Amino acid sequence: MDKVNVIAPAKINLSLDILGVDERGYHLLDMIMQTVSLFERVTVSKKEKDITLSSNARYIPTDSKNVAVKAAMLFFEYTGIQGGAHIHIKKTVPIKAGMAGGSADAAGVIVGLDKIYETNLTRQQMCEIGAKAGSDVPFMIMGGTKRVQGVGEIIKPCPPMPRCYLVICMPDKGVSTPAAFANYDTLGEKTLVETDKLVAAMEENDIYGVAKYMANDLEKAAASEYTQPIKEELIQQGAIGSVMTGSGAAVFGVFDDEDKAKAAVEYFRGRVRSVFIAKPVGFGATIAKDRPRRR
Ligand code: C5P
């Protein structure tokens, strides 16, 4: 096989708790992460040498500044294979959203290269490669609902998110991840993040409990003037809870009713840069033809 299509879901953070910093200044985290039905489509083709990238999106880098190219380089380094690849990315996930779109692309590249070069790597090995490309990449390879700790390299099982609808709003301006973390350090202000209570709600399949305990330490640090108004409007539109995802700037609301979620999407159209309706999914980057049809 010389070419493969991979679908790579975006993620949201149901929670993000900052526990400290390591010696490099990276933040030690405790997060509940969830992949959602908003997909990057990554095509990986074999080439004799070199790594090249193209995309429908003009605003992403096509050189080694792109985490997907970096991931391919790391794959060849790890496996010792003398080869190359062309990567084509059909982007759906907004950038600077806190939804790990770039990391999803990188995860897709690793999964795709494993297939076309027949390396049969375990998910664990793929995560090892991914962790060197970016903090979120290992989770984007695993997907589903997970408790993610350390700087993203510790991935623990978590009961699946109860059935629900997600309305995800991307405001006019994105947030840079390093800036959000740096701002957090300057502000020194913590949010109450009760991860164990969130996990307990998941165990009970209680979507109202999940919505109640969603929280994000970076919400204030992201310093987006759009966060609070969107959160409030999501609640006014019938969300049972709302929070910013990752380092922002996207904000999502959890809905227990599909019609209300669809009405909320209509409400936000034109009021934010982009709005999506999605559901939680139980998988990470996956060869398109192997995609599970059910949760
Ligand atoms: O690993 P990634 O490239 O996604 O991280 C981007 C930047 O975000 C890092 O250079 C660092 O400044 C910040 N970061 C952090 N703690 C983390 C993850 C990222 O401080 N756990």
SSE blueprint and pairings:
Layout: E1 3-21, E2 27-47, E3 51-55, H1 67-79, E4 84-90, H2 101-116, H3 123-133, H4 137-142, E5 145-150, E6 154-157, E7 165-170, H5 177-187, H6 195-203, H7 207-213, E8 215-216, H8 227-236, E9 241-244, E10 251-255, H9 258-268, E11 274-278, E12 286-287
Parallel strand pairs: 1-8, 3-4
Antiparallel strand pairs: 1-2, 1-12, 2-4, 2-5, 5-6, 7-10, 7-11, 9-10
Helix pairs in contact: 1-2, 1-3, 2-3, 6-7
The structure holds cytidine-5'-monophosphate.
Cytidine-5'-monophosphate binds at residues 26-27, 29, 134-136, 151, 177-178, 181.
What is the CATH fold-level name of the largest domain?
Answer: Ribosomal Protein S5, domain 2
Radius of gyration: 18 Å
Structural domains: how many: 2
Share of residues in strands: 25-35%
CATH architecture of the largest domain: 2-Layer Sandwich
The small molecules bound here are: cytidine-5'-monophosphate
Name the average pLDDT.
Answer: 97
Share of helical residues: 25-40%
What would you call the shape? globular
Largest beta-sheet characterization: 8 strands, mixed
Secondary structure: number of strands: 12
Which series of helices and strands comes N to C?
EEEHEHHHEEEHHHEHEEHEE
Low-confidence stretches: none
- CATH domain class of the largest domain: Alpha Beta
- The N- and C-terminal alpha carbons lie at a distance of 28 Å
Class of secondary structure makeup = alpha+beta
Total of DSSP H or I helical runs spanning 4+ residues: 9
